[in-house]
Design goal:
alpha+beta, five-stranded mixed beta sheet, 8 helices, globular, binds glutathione
């Protein structure tokens, strides 16, 4: 599927994605920048992420993969930062030299290294060698995720409305993706007092509406 592609002008970006997964933040960032891009949807039911052709692009067999001028790059948080840097006009990141730049790195790293792996374990018990989580393992992962959300919630309550305070950034988009993944968990992220309104503010952005249309998502729209 092609989106936002001016006629006769091949897009610089191709995103390999699957609806609602870790590719979501990269898709959102592309929409925020307005950059022309091509989307390639992988059907997980058919195991397309493990096809020989795709493994050449991404040996992890995961999404997202972003081709930039034909060269593949992976890892959702890294791709978010890459797009923020390539499109400074989209203001997804404070400029280098801005004191908030350090906060931006810090929040992206925190989200990607705490919530990212914990959700991965939650949704892929096979990564830990079990078909289903034994109850204690399930509890431990849930506690990790909830502890991270408690920290983010306290931060927003003290100095929101965005992770960087008064300024929206791509770090908020990463948090939004992870919040969405908790929607069917025992305590969804939106149950925290500052996180609920934070999610609502982000879901009011046009990029979110467009993402839902293009990816064909319905749940947790607003
Ligand atoms: N650390 C990676 C994790 C990517 C990841 O786990 N992607 C999942 C979807 S959320 C995937 O591709 N799963 C398919 C599979 O593992 O077979 C990132 O953030 O990009």
């Amino acid at each position: 599927m092609l989106t936002h592609r001016p006629p006769g002008n091949p897009p610089v970006y191709t995103l390999y994605y699957s609806p609602g997964t870790a590719s979501m933040v990269v898709h959102l960032a592309l929409l925020e920048t307005g950059a022309p891009h091509r989307l390639v949807k992988l059907d997980f039911e058919r195991g397309e992420q493990r096809s020989a052709e795709y493994l050449k692009l991404n040996p992890r067999g995961q999404v997202p993969t972003l081709l930039v001028d034909g060269k593949p790059y992976v890892e959702s948080a890294a791709l978010l930062m890459l797009l923020a840097d390539r499109h400074p006009e989209a203001a997804l990141a404070p400029s280098p030299g801005d004191p908030l730049r350090a906060d931006w790195y810090q929040w992206i790293a925190f989200l990607a290294t705490t919530l990212g792996p914990a959700y991965r374990q939650w949704f892929y018990p096979g990564d830990l060698g079990t078909a289903e989580h034994p109850p204690a393992q399930c509890e431990a992962i849930r506690a990790k995720i909830e502890a991270a959300w408690s920290l983010v919630d306290a931060h927003l309550a003290a100095g929101g409305p965005w992770l960087l305070g008064a300024r929206f950034s791509g770090a908020d988009l990463l948090a939004l993706m992870y919040m969405r993944w908790s929607r069917n968990m025992p305590r969804p992220a939106t149950a925290w007092p500052a996180l609920g309104p934070f999610a609502d503010r982000l879901r009011a952005r046009p990029s979110w509406t467009r993402l839902y249309e293009v990816e064909g998502l319905t749940e947790w729209r607003a």
